[in-house]
Amino acid sequence: QILYLKPPWTLANLLKCYKKHWMAVFGYVVPRNLLSTIECLSKHLYADKPFDSSTVRVLLQESKNLLHAFSCRSDYNGVLPQAYAEVTKLCETLGEVRADLVEQDLSEDIMVLSENAACEKMEATVPSLQSTEEKELHPSFPGAQENRHQEIWAVLEGVWNTMNLYSVELFQKLDPSAVTMTAKASFEEAFLGLQKLLAAVKEIREGIGR
């Protein structure tokens, strides 16, 4: 009788009910800091704009966090484990698709990209990346803090792998017999990786300041 929205619920209605009754009801069932997860899902699922793969990956992970938290209370007649399994399957599928795309791009670059073409590609990429620099300097999901340390580690690892691949390519140019090049990261990937690293370090510094 006191519900903010009456059933049957859509997902949008359910997320609104979570936020409305969080402190009085749901905060006593699961950790209260998961409100940031609810806000993240609500903000991005109904933003009326297309998703990129990074957004989808974060939304899936936030969904898994929420389902796992409620599983500590009950399995809800088996519905919750089934939902968790489906979200996990989506995460795995997304990872496979992203890996296939990266492998395809690398294969095409190795086949058709000469040394001069690589220089031209880097020069042409810089202006378009500068226009997105402001956006990349700010974290896309300020409310999703639970797995922030994992996100920072992933960025650091990505920067290391990218720079390592460039080093391999450089040494191969200097002495083809010394190194066998297996893959080449794009200049755009390296640039965006550094921007993400800058945003992560800035957030860590602000956290220490607080």
TrEMBL record:
One cellular component (GO) term of this entry: nucleus
Domain of life: Eukaryota
InterPro entries reported for this sequence: SWT1_Regulator
Protein name: SWT1 protein
Organism name: Brachypodius melanocephalos (black-headed bulbul)
